[in-house]
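Much of what follows relies on a compact textual record of a protein's fold. Think of the row as the fold of the chain written in a discrete alphabet. An example makes this concrete, so a full record is given next.


***
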Amino acid sequence: MSGVVGFVGLDSFSFELASSLLRSGFKVQAFEISTELVEKFIELGGHKCDSPADVGKAAAAVVVVLSHPDQIQDVIFGDEGVMKGLQKDAVLLLSSTISTLQLQKLEKQLTEKREQIFVVDAYVLKGMSELLDGKLMIIASGRSDSITRAQPYLTAMCQNLYTFEGEIGAGSKVKMVNELLEGIHLVAAVEAISLGSQAGVHPWILYDIISNAAGNSWIYKNHIPLLLKDDIEGRFLDVLSQNLAIVEDKAKSLPFPVPLLAVARQQLISGISQMQGDDTATSLAKISEKVLGVGILEAANRELYKPEDLAKEITTQAKPVNRIGFIGLGAMGFGMAAHLLKSNFSVCGYDVYKPTLVRFENAGGLAANSPAEVTKDVDVLVIMVTNEVQAEDVLYGHLGAVEAIPSGATVVLASTVSPAFVSQLERRLENEGKDLKLVDAPVSGGVKRAAMGELTIMASGTDEALKSAGLVLSALSEKLYVIKGGCGAGSGVKMVNQLLAGVHIASAAEAMAFGARLGLNTRKLFNVISNSGGTSWMFENRVPHMLDNDYTPYSALDIFVKDLGIVTREGSSRKVPLHISTVAHQLFLAGSAAGWGRIDDAGVVKVYETLAGIKVEGRLPVLKKQDLLKSLPAEWPSDPTTDIHRLNMGNSKTLVVLDDDPTGTQTVHDVEVLTEWSVESISEQFRKKPACFFILTNSRSLSPEKASELIKDICSNLCAASKEVGNADYTIVLRGDSTLRGHFPQEADAAVSILGEMDAWIICPFFLQGGRYTIDDVHYVADSDRLVPAGETEFAKDASFGYKSSNLREWVEEKTAGVIPANSVQSISIQLLRKGGPDAVCEFLCSLKKVNFSKQISRRLLDVAFRELLGSTCIVNAASERDMAVFAAGMIQAELKGRSFLCRTAASFVSALIGIIPKDPVLPKDFESNKESSGALIVVGSYVPKTTKQVEELQSQHNQNLRSIEISVEKVALKSSEVRDEEIRRAVEMADAFLRAGRETLIMSSRELITGKTSSESLDINSKVSSALVEVVSQISTRPRYILAKGGITSSDTATKALKARRALVIGQALAGVPVWKLGPESRHPGVPYIVFPGNVGNSTALAEVVKSWSVVAGRSTKELLLNAEKGGYAVGAFNVYNLEGIEAVVAAAEEENSPAILQVHPGAFKQGGIPLVSCCISAAEQARVPISVHFDHGTTKHELLEALELGLDSVMVDGSHLSFTENLSYTKSITELARSKNIMVEAELGRLSGTEDGLTVEDYEAKLTNVNQAQEFMETGIDALAVCIGNVHGKYPKSGPNLKLDLLKELHALSSKKGVFLVLHGASGLSENLIKECIENGVRKFNVNTEVRTAYMEALSSGKKTDIVDVMSATKAAMKAVIADKIRLFGSAGKA
């Protein structure tokens, strides 16, 4: 694309646009008739053209300035028009003030004449906000492809860019919405000043107070001073009226009701009519005086005073207060009364709602049962009730306060009431003859400020009254104003403020609903208006409620029914016509009548939504994942991982990941983690020259201030360590949560303050394993087959790190409080990644420029020390691991060219940047601790709903072997230290008992989420819960088989505080996104696997799946054991058992040798032990640390085997060796078919062994060797294993020793290998080591052992003195275990579990 931009027409705005392009390095050419601006343009480096056609030549984009539709034909389509010279695929930017319909007609003409043209409407205006004061904004609209093509030029031309994709003409629509607001706000401002002046309040006092309060607007702040100075000409009303007429006509055509706009325009018309034939009515002030009948200018010229200075006087001369009565402990009243308690006042409170009184007593206050009782012995009585009726009732009703109040007391009326009511009340109190004093002190500021003593109070009354209440007023306020004029003056100021606030909420509703009816994106519309002349304090505060469709009542709609009722009543009594205020009051009344009175006052927008059938809500849609992913371009064709490895070899930088919780290691393996960051430890890492290492900061659990200091400390140590090892080079990654929670921008700025400014901050929260995608700058969280915008998820409601924006550009602006505007945030699109590849990424990153920001603004808004030049902020879109790898390769290229970056990313970015190749999931067999017999320890602290569902699923699936211990959050975070300690002691005792018993032990915080009133309080609660979990884990004495910690803070604190780990090695992942660490030798449990399970990863069954895969046995199938033996070239021992000691001996020996084994039950043993014996075997196998199966041996009758098949065994032996071959064949086949249906393995015998086993004797003459020819047919029965007779015997071999036919075994092995049948050898007792090895080499995979184990048992019984059954059990178990362990080693299965 060419770097030439053309301009047709240079007015004041377009000249600024052209100047910005020149400063950004573009070549700019222009055609303009006026010489003055052209000369300045040429001085800046621009090129003059002779015609519009010349402008289009060689230009990639042309800006055409149109002020009237009549210009279109000549300027664009004429003989020398732009279209004559316009290049193919050029961008045509229409900077105009013509109507939407005319723009759309023009676009149609342009695209009909030339298909390959990109037309964009670019409406230019100046920012009016404090941040953008006077800087240019552009509202661009057009087709998606046109906006994308025009974006580089638009971005370079202005400070803020707002794009509306779709129909052209959005700028004209936004202009109408803004003009609607400006017109309403102007009329409301004049009404407010007039009413206040008529009420006796100095207009300049009103201006000073309200311009810093909720009633402020851009119009009020900037126009009222001119009005009061008589410095606004009246003729501008005519222009404003004409503009509003255009808006009103548009509304009629839709149709859409605009009652506030309509009445505002009528007021303007009334004012205009006053100018006709009257030379004196030439200014806005004089016109307003004639229309409203109030002497504004005379009032403005009265002697001025400073209300703040009067407030200081009364507080410095204030009288002491011993006791305060407080009536009305509602939302604000309770906070005020509680703050007075914290300020060491004695406060007695009363409220009609009894639970509130109990709560007040718990806070340290005294509770009264009536208004009369509350006034006993008070110096000051504060009344904070809803309205005049309630104030009247608590003072003069049944058991009212006035009757009982002591003489000389002062009443402070803090409620919002009319000035007339206050004046009347003062007279009534004077007539009581008790020297009662009244202070009129309405408050403003909301519930939170009330509780913190930071209210704005407008107080009026006699000097004596004010001094009597001075200390109370001072304690409750951040801003205290004393208003002259006697009681009622304070309420007059509050009344005027509420007039403006109410009108501004209603006008915001009308404007946003009108914008929605025009088809505008309401969230973007809000962003534009917030920086324009139509903004107000209430617009910026209440419209987000409308956009989020969240009407949680911070201030109920009915409050403005009351407050605007006061306004209209006072206007009527004082003969001031309040047209706009009255209509606004009617809108709130309509909302209340519809049943919305108790929702938030922003709910007045529902009146418009209901009438017009539209929705103002600006939520991003939930999308179908597959549909969205399929709509994206094909991925970059080649995998850049090999290139990343090559580039990293040439890039000496080490990647240092500062991980705000341990879950960031979820995509890497064979990488070290430091949990402390001394210079020595970091230097040691740098000397190893690793591609990457992690430093676990756990900063997400800290306050913003502490997190910043921590990052500065670590970065300082990094700098020192780097110098110590010869200036090791490194790149910093701030690994944060993929759902956008954490300390941004505080941590990034802290790092930069130590390391120095970077060329760019990279924001990349993509994380495939967690289902996090960033597409078209919007960050999504996958929920099954849907993609939910992150701002709409549970994560965005986090008590400490909540946010609203899903669009990452807007998220950056939100998190930086507007210091980094959304339009200044750069974006690497998926299109660039997939079509341009790493080289395009590199080029883009190298082109990023530093941005100028105000140091003062940033410090004020963020309390963070940004520098004058801030590196660019760049977000990265990604929808696949390939996208991530492409970006990583491009970023490394840019680093090799000298660019520096600070990255705030999720885990996927880290693995991509170092070229990690995924490996299979980590299992217990990868750790030596697999031999441990204790249970696993599972610690859960995360509160996200996903974790709660996962815990419920874990408990459901593993209820047999899982034991749960719930720690009460209330007890450990909110109760006394004694209660906390007892709760911890209880958990420790239970956990030790469960772990020793081999049970998987779940320790979790109670699932009810308890949050504080502020984010810092919530963090404090989280910290206390985490520390309690740490204390529990640190006091558990049993070494767990493995430890799993769920949740970021929990896993960090468990590793560093409970387990004292200073370093760890990331082995891999137990499940996608779930890292497994090997703790360092300095930890409490060195070598124990530590599974870090993030709170936001996996579906509802993920936790249960990990616990299952890490259970003591992967499976207990006999067939699986023999398959593994076949692969490993060893055999598995099958040991006959008769009692608990025998069972425990087999399991203990197998676990000690880390070997599989088989528990065998002979019919003779089953006859004696029955089902309990089998149940013991099955239970022991299930709980064993190694694979153990249970086998039924020598089933000689169908009755025996049918019963055995129902007992839950893993395998059975069909013994038809006493039958003829034909009968054996039939018998075996029938049982095999039944066993197969139950997934039970079958072993059968062909031939017959001599000897005695369990009372069954086969004489030598009855013995038969296995016939090879018969074996071939026998194997067709479907058996899994064949017990062969090759000279082996049951019981003891003759003195001459065994005489095994190994040649026969070899033949049988050749046959069985083809059939997939395992060979089994009974009678392994007494076989030599050499014979055992030869049998294994010839295919024997299972050896039956009985005689030697039984002999050991009997000898142990008879040897030595045993005085107790326990001694017998111990001795016999030890004797059998020794024999079994010896056989396991002999069979080669040791270490093969």
Observations:
- The chain has 55 helices and 48 strands.
- Residues 851-869, 1254-1258 have pLDDT under 50 and may be disordered.
- The longest helix spans residues 170-198.
